[in-house]
Amino acid sequence: MLPKEDRLTTGQFDLVMKKGRVFNSSLFLARVIVLPGKAKLAAVVPQKIAKTAVGRNKLRRSMYIAMEPYIDGIVDDRQAIIFAKSLAVGAEQSVLVKDMKEIFVKSGLLK
């Protein structure tokens, strides 16, 4: 799990949703915005993708675990929201990690 200081606040989340650029991979969708300050992230699993709260929380935790290897390489001044797509629900952790790197590279989050 990401430390609280590395996660988006509600105000930052709303700003990224309004003005963020969209990037796609097979398992994730990312909205990214460049703002001064430390890099911050959020993982979101829509109710349409996983119906129960247990399922959403489990996938969200898996997404945060998939982000961990790349956290140190994220460029400052970037804030992003990573959304899960329906294919992510049954995916193995190694596939999530690989696709997370792909979306981070596509969106310019990695150095």
Describe, in plain words, how this protein is organized in 3D.
The protein has a four-stranded mixed beta sheet with strand order 1-2-4-3, with helices on both faces. The longest helix is centred in the middle third of the chain and has 15 residues, at 53-67. It has 111 residues and is α+β, with helices and mostly antiparallel strands. β1 (21-24) and β2 (28-34) form a beta hairpin. 36% of the residues lie in helices and 21% in strands. The chain has three helices and four strands; from the N terminus they run αβββαβα. The model has no long low-confidence stretch (mean pLDDT 94). α2 packs across α3 (93-107).
| Global structural class | alpha+beta
Total of helices:
3
Q: How many DSSP E strands? A: 4
Task: Point out poorly predicted stretches.
Answer: none
What share of residues is helical? 25-40%
Fill in the keyword field for this structure:
four-stranded mixed beta sheet; 111 residues; 36% helix; globular; alpha+beta
Outline of this structure?
The protein is an alpha+beta fold and 111 residues long. It has 3 helices and 4 strands, in the order αβββαβα.
Helix-strand layout with pairing:
Layout: H1 10-19, E1 21-24, E2 28-34, E3 40-44, H2 53-67, E4 78-84, H3 93-107
Parallel strand pairs: 3-4
Antiparallel strand pairs: 1-2, 2-4
Helix pairs in contact: 2-3
